[in-house]
Structure prediction request, 618 residues.
Amino acid sequence: MAGSTPKSVVQHKDNVMQSPMNVSDLSAIFPQNETERSNKPQFKTPKRESLSESANSDYESDPPAEKLPFQNLTEETSNTNSTPGCAKDFSETLELDSVLIRALEEADNVQGGSKHNDNFKTPKMKTRSKKTSDMVPITPMPNYSDLDTPEIIKKGQDFGLKKTLGKRKIKTKLKEAFLYNHQVESSSEDEQPDMNDNDKHVAVTSTSPLLLHNYETETESELTMDGADEVNNVVLEISSSDSNDGSDIEELHRTLFVPAASQHYDITSTSGDDVASTEASKIKKKVKPHNVEELGKRLLQMITSDEALYSDILQYKPIYLSQFKRKLETENFRCTSNELLDFLDKQGITFSTADERKEKQTRRKTKRKTKI
Amino acid sequence: TDMVVAIDNFFGCYLLYSRNSKYKGRTYIGFTVNPERRISQHNAGASKGGAYRTSGRGPWDMTMIVHGFPSDIAALRFEWAWQNPKRSRRLKHITCKTRKESMFQYRIRIMSNMLTQTPWKKLPLTVQWLKQEYAVDLTPLPPNHMPIMYGPVSAKVKKHKKSMAKQSKSCLTSSTCCTLCNVSLPVNVENAPSILKCPNESCNMASHLLCLAKHFLSNKFDQLLPVDGYCPSCNDSLLWGALIRQ
Prediction:
């Protein structure tokens, strides 16, 4: 039983290899490709052998299934140099794709213990042949975050996004659009009608959400990166050396500091629930100064009594607004954010709302997550 | 370049003006830590690190720069407000560009207003005209503690060995007591940024950061950040920003 499985794999491999063979036949028409042609069989054969070998070893001593696609990946990339054109590339992605899927299925089989089931091999072959004919390969998501500004704007405009939306928002929208368009093609649709085995169905449904999830986390991490993390890095770089150039920072500040001045924060609105819930906060409400001058005096007193904070301010070190607000809360001090910003402005204190925005973003995300 | 005073911890916001006949009158507001390098980048195009808006629309002149920002955050906030006066909560009072006004004039007007406006009016800033042909009188005039300078400027890439040596020497010779509160100052001054000294070489005033701030603010009870004051020892007029820069 165990001997029959690798055979079917090798057969399937031949099916997939058809397209590059055709290409090489075509290339035979052109005389300059003769050397290539002679080279081809040389490295194709060992590739096939190595595949069957790896398949064999797979079945004999169940190693982790992820290993298989990676091995192939390195092989493929080393081979691409000498083969002509895009047809080859296409077949490669197909091949990779199929290898990936097979690896996933195999992993599932190992888990389910239905590895030695005969019913299970034949439909697998069918789906393979089908795929080679009409399946769209999974294209990796283009690295939107690394694209240049004009390109991002152009791509955004393809989806009807306005220029004025801003780079950061366009990027996130593009990523969303990509996921929306491409999850359909992630091989699950094509296979689902052919599925007879329960095992397989499970395998398919488990693969696509996994992929999706990866993308999601990627975009999220980038979102947070756009926030304070990246700024901190840049800040460090600037202060330590002049290796950083202004252009990066230009981009950054646009995303970071826009809302700082245009948005109106309100402590009372964000923490309104707390106020209603606890009795102690009711007392705080009474404490809240109504007069702007009174408020200023109290804030002055509070800052001057905190030596570390005050010496930071005296050295023009920017203070982080969310930290400062937390301090205010611990001191039973309540005022609207606008009042606070006005006070800090009046005193000429530089503050950053980067950390606050990051907090808000994470808050929003957790809300979304809980809804889903 | 020897004549140009290199500035440590340089953070500046500049205004570019295009000399390209196709894009005549175009301006660009930017932020930099190194103005000399930045203008060459703008003129070299996007592939060399110039901004996309300026790429291929040069040659650009860096007409003037506001520098002396204590941190990049402060400078970037200034830049954003300068670029977006209508969106900034601090510049709502600034009137729109008039027809008679060129974009350059409008942006200079915004900048002059900003310098007299919180939170920037208390910062130790310098307005520097880099090209003489662009220099105009600022209305309103910036606060007294902000000098208006003319000529090129450059950022110090590395700390000078000389100044480092000077610092350590002055540390050794300084008295160990705060001039204001008479409490002994920590000996290892390099690790204590909370000690300020009079820049006047014949004066050996040294004090705690908080003590001198209190001294400078003695008649301004509603202020937290001093702008200037007099040395308690030699009575020289001192700028708080210059003292912190040391």
Notes: Chain B has two domains: 5-155, 165-245.
